[in-house]
Amino acid sequence: MHPGVERGADVVSVAAPERPTGAADPTALPRLLQGAPLRSPADHLRVWGPLPRPRRAQLLAEVEAAGLTGRGGAGFPLAAKLAAASHGPAGTVVVNATEGEPVSAKDATLLAASPHLVLDGATAAAHATGAAAIVVCLKRSHAALARQVEEVVGLRRRAGLDPVRIQVTTAPDRYVAGQETALVRWLDGGEARPTTVPPRPTSRGVGRRPTLVSNAETLAHLALIARFGAAWFRSLGRPDAPGTTLATLSGDVRVPGVYEVPLGAPLGELIAAAGGDPAANGGVLVGGYFGAWVGPAAAAAPFCAAGLRPFGAAVGCGAVAVLPAGVCGLLETARVLRWLAGESAGQCGPCVNGLPAMADAFDAVVAGDPGGAAEAHLVRWAGMVERRGACALPDGAARLVRSALQVFAADAELHRRRGPCRPAPPVLPTPTPGGWR
Amino acid sequence: MPAGAAGAAHPDPGRVAVSRSRRLTVDPIACDGRGLCAELLPERVRLDDWGYPIIDPRPLPPALLGPARQAVVACPMLALRLRAVIEEPAARE
Known about the structure:
Chain A is of the alpha/beta class. In chain A, about 40% of the residues lie in helices and about 10% in strands. Chain A has a five-stranded mixed β-sheet. Chain A has a four-stranded parallel β-sheet with strand order 3-2-1-4, with helices on both faces. Chain A has a two-stranded antiparallel ribbon with strand order 5-6. The longest helix of chain A is centred in the middle third of the chain and has 18 residues, at about 215-235. Chain B is an alpha+beta fold. Chain B has a two-stranded antiparallel sheet with strand order 1-4. Chain B has a two-stranded antiparallel ribbon with strand order 2-3. In chain B, a hairpin with a 5-residue loop joins β2 (about 45) and β3. The longest helix of chain B is centred in the last third of the chain and has 13 residues, at about 60-75. The interface of A and B includes residues 77, 240, 347, 349 and 380 of A.
């Protein structure tokens, strides 16, 4: 039996009623959002208890055994990153809550609902890597939330919870600003544009010291692994995709918001939990703008790397955007692709040239693409830009294009025969970009 | 683990094995698509539709090492690099 999907959408505004006696139930779902909102250190400690401080090697071994992977998008194993960042001089832990993905809200929701878990995780990561500083990074448009987190940090300092000093800062609102090298460059006083690797931040990051850049949700999971251990973490999810993940449901669902689900839960079940049609045949964008469109056949697909791979998709940052029936997926993709092209940091030739060319070609597909020349160009260019940027923006654009041409093939055929569809109000948001500093 | 210890056939997953072979890489930020590399080393470099180099990632055979070095030196942006082939530990999902 599947453990089911828990609602977490309104945790920010609704007080937790079910735990009058305090201590959290580690066997329950949700995990990260349990008991929320937990703003005061006292409330947090009442629910979760203090953060244990095992020996570094023991903590690293526990994370390794837990199999926790990054929840920011790339899915890299946290244990490997912690190990890589624990050599050399004392460095920095960067809590990445920049959440540049327009259809994701999970890091902001988590920081509003249970900031102490994120900060506990950062403290545990600093302990594991021997870091001497912690920086929490949000995006500038979340300045109010950043102030709230700063207050929480102040309360924790007075309560003596954090041996390592925590700073809170806000970074530019750019899609690639949350890419870890871009964040390091910006924290060092530069522009929030990616840099070439190697060196990776784990070997040379902020102040040229080893730097662990980790997603806010990933660190919150770490805080719970430090408390309850690897076996507990693995008691939900799948052997190849352990634990829970936060998912942001948006689009054609009755209750959009952030949900906590075991990895491997069927995608359709997740959509249904948010009040959407699990067999939504308008198309579902999985993993954010960096992700892939899937059709109704993916409703039964487990929401995890192995389950989504056959559909060319990945969990990414856990964003799931359901397109309403009757909305043109080609038109939506064309708009998002144009936005992605505008989010290029303007540094790498294949991205600077390829993404606008792909956006033009996609516009041509929307316009009807007589002869199929534009579609042929799209296929060629998707292959051409892949893995050729300093960051993975071109790869994301290529994935979006390929999946759209596949999932909306019938629509493309209609456009070819009848010309473009009528302009419609946009469904997927394309926020106005900020500067680079 | 001391050199030659049992299990040496299975490299420690925490370490990387650096071999003596070399491959070409390009720093995509430094590169501005002058295209000299593709002229000097067509065996390993072709240009994309916008004039930027697409590099064959395979290790270079000994016969191409000399020409590859010349291409690296000729790059006006110092964007072309010769790197030791690093056998990364198998990536996990």
